């Protein structure tokens, strides 16, 4: 079964065709991230306008020489959560295609779908996740933990009580004067930390690990932003805010965020006696995060290009949670919940 999926929840316009939830037939992503780099963050109106510009060329390139009416069995589209203007572009386009072809649409929750990038059989070395599994979605807007009893059974067990992990990376990068999106920029600065002149224990900056030791499976990252701002202001007062202290702060921030993510996830994995841990979302592309997990547990991480937003996992989710509906029943839901 071939599903054509559309994803437009934020600043990526994406479409993909996936066969039987596993095989990538085509995958096209257009991103307006470069445009948002200039403003240091996403301006929803600008993102939505770019979605309008990109959606038809992206779908056209995805379908290539296939026939939408003959070769595609069903459509899937992200209905939420996300930015309303951006979501509407993908949702209304999917409805138009359904009206045109008579095909059904599978409405998809973007956050849950991130985990299904782990079921795409990218290459020969692919290893199938074992159930029960634990899923950690770490993106720009979400940090959520799920128990996956089987491939189509997800139960939410915890999540962030304030900012998402990716949001903490993005906001702190901005405070440090680094580029957007902040995750890769912080990771690149943190990688310079190994140099000895930077790694000076006397000037080491320490950041908190909020709620790392409590009994919940929740996360809290907004305090880190305040802590980074406080450190930066202190450094500026003593004229010590420079390339070296930026690297130290970036390193410590990455350590703090990844420590919190790993501690809670591993504790949940032990409690629920899971057989594997699945990561998904843009922050799952962080090498330090996966390095820390690997020393603790057997994990599955999609390749970086499938961690960040694209439509492959939207189609995979739709295949494994196949509940197609008539186009009239599909609408954008910007505040769609993740507790299912
Ligand atoms: O899943 P995604 O592409 O979009 C959302 O659904 O939000 O995630 C984007 C987030 C951004 O906050 C970005 O800074 C973060 O993922 N990110 C990273 C890395 N690559 C992207 N964070 C840490 N390290 C990375 N290498
Ligand atoms: Zn996402």
How many beta-strand runs? 10
Task: Tell me which ligands are bound.
Answer: 5'-O-[(R)-(carboxyoxy)(hydroxy)phosphoryl]adenosine, zinc ion
Radius of gyration: 20 Å
The helix count comes to 12
Strand order of the largest sheet: 3-2-1-4-5
CATH superfamily of the largest domain: ATPase, nucleotide binding domain
C-alpha end-to-end distance: 26 Å
CATH class of the largest domain: Alpha Beta
Taken together, the total number of domains comes to 2
Secondary-structure-based class equals: alpha/beta
CATH fold title of the largest domain: Nucleotidyltransferase, domain 5
Helix-strand sequence = EEEHHHEHEHEEEHHHHEHEHH
The pLDDT mean sits at 94
Describe the sheet with the most strands. 5 strands, mixed
Instruction: Please tell me what the overall shape is.
Output: globular
For the record, the CATH architecture of the largest domain stands as 2-Layer Sandwich
Amount of helix? 40-55%
- In terms of DSSP E residues, the strand content is 15-25%
Low-confidence stretches: none
Would you write up a description of this structure?
The protein has 340 residues and is of the alpha/beta class. The chain has two domains: 2-120 and 306-329, Nucleotidyltransferase, domain 5; 133-301, ATPase, nucleotide binding domain (Nucleotidyltransferase, domain 5, 2-Layer Sandwich), CATH 3.30.420.40. Helices cover 40% and strands 19% of the residues. It has twelve helices and ten strands. It has helices at 33-37, 44-63, 68-71, 84-101, 110-113, 165-175, 182-190, 222-237, 243-271, 287-294, 304-307, 312-320; strands spanning 2-7, 12-19, 23-31, 74-80, 105-109, 133-138, 143-150, 153-159, 276-280, 299-300. The strands form two sheets. It has a five-stranded mixed sheet with strand order 3-2-1-4-5, with helices on both faces. Helix 6 (165-175) packs antiparallel against helix 9 (243-271) and helix 9 (243-271) packs across helix 10. The radius of gyration is 20 Å and the shape is globular. The two termini are 26 Å apart. The model has no long low-confidence stretch (mean pLDDT 94). The protein binds 5'-O-[(R)-(carboxyoxy)(hydroxy)phosphoryl]adenosine and zinc ion. 5'-O-[(R)-(carboxyoxy)(hydroxy)phosphoryl]adenosine binds at residues 10, 139-141, 166, 169-170, 181-184, 187, 281-283, 285-286, 308-309. Zinc ion binds at residues 110, 114, 139, 281, 309.
């Amino acid at each position: 079964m071939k599903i054509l999926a559309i994803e437009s929840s934020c600043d990526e316009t994406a479409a993909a065709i996936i066969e039987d939830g596993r095989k990538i037939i085509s995958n096209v992503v257009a991103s307006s991230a470069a445009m948002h780099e200039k403003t240091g963050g996403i301006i929803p109106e600008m993102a939505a306008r770019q979605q309008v510009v990109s959606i038809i060329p992206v779908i056209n390139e995805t379908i290539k020489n296939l026939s939408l009416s003959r070769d595609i069995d069903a459509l899937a589209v992200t209905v939420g959560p996300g930015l309303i203007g951006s979501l509407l572009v993908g949702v209304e386009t999917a409805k138009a295609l359904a009206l045109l072809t008579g095909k059904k649409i599978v409405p998809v929750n973007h956050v849950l779908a991130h985990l299904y990038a782990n079921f795409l059989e990218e290459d020969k070395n692919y290893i199938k996740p074992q159930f029960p599994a634990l899923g950690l979605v770490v993106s720009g807007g979400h940090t959520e933990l799920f128990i996956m009893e089987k491939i189509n059974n997800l139960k939410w067990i915890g999540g962030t009580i304030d900012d998402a992990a990716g949001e903490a990376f993005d906001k702190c990068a901005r405070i440090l004067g680094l580029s957007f999106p902040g995750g890769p920029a912080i990771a690149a600065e943190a990688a310079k930390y190994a140099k000895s002149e930077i790694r000076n224990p006397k000037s080491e900056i320490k950041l908190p690990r909020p709620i790392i030791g409590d009994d919940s499976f929740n996360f809290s990252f907004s305090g880190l932003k305040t802590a980074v701002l406080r450190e930066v202001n202190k450094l500026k007062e003593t004229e010590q805010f420079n390339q070296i202290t930026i690297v130290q702060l970036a390193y410590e921030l990455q350590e703090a965020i990844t420590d919190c993510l790993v501690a809670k996830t591993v504790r949940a994995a032990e409690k629920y006696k899971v057989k594997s841990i699945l990561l998904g979302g843009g922050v799952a592309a962080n090498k330090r995060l996966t390095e820390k997990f690997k020393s603790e547990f057997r994990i599955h991480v999609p390749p970086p290009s499938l961690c960040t937003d694209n439509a492959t996992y939207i189609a995979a989710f739709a295949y494994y949670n196949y509940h197609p509906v008539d186009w009239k029943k599909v609408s954008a839901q910007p505040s769609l919940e993740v507790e299912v």
